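User: I'm curious whether this sequence folds into something compact or stays loose and floppy. Could you predict its structure so I can see for myself?
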Amino acid sequence: MAEVSAEARIEAPAEKVWAQLTDFSAYGRWNATHTSFPKGGPETLELSATYEENMKLMGFPAEVTWTVTELETARLLTTKGKGPMGVNLAMRYSLTPDGNATTVRIDGEFTGAAVSLMAGKLKDSATAALVESLRKLGGLITA
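Assistant: Here's the prediction. I'll summarize afterward.
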């Protein structure tokens, strides 16, 4: 298993951060691993919604089918995904209001036989991608 996380303070209210975080049409503008939604993002963001995403992890393309498992508007979005080679993924986006700013934390988890072979490299690559994604997300919102 490989677990990754990143956190950033964004100078905007949680509702504004949430609106950008869940704007799937603009996902590629901030998410460093995202390449496309072959069938579009989820039509309605709700529990059990599923959608497919093409990603690039450690330089390799990956197709992931996501399911929304936790959802609390402007606070929490958790998705679980099935990727190639039996890899399972989980992503948890949590927003904590702090005055006129918001602390955004992303926690990711990768499990499966293929992960154990490259856990260290995957952890480094995914952590760097999360940090970059939060930087870009903050830039879009405060700009």
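Summary: The CA atoms of residues 85 and 114 lie 7 Å apart. The domain at 2-142 is CATH 3.30.530.20 (Alpha-D-Glucose-1,6-Bisphosphate; Chain A, domain 4).
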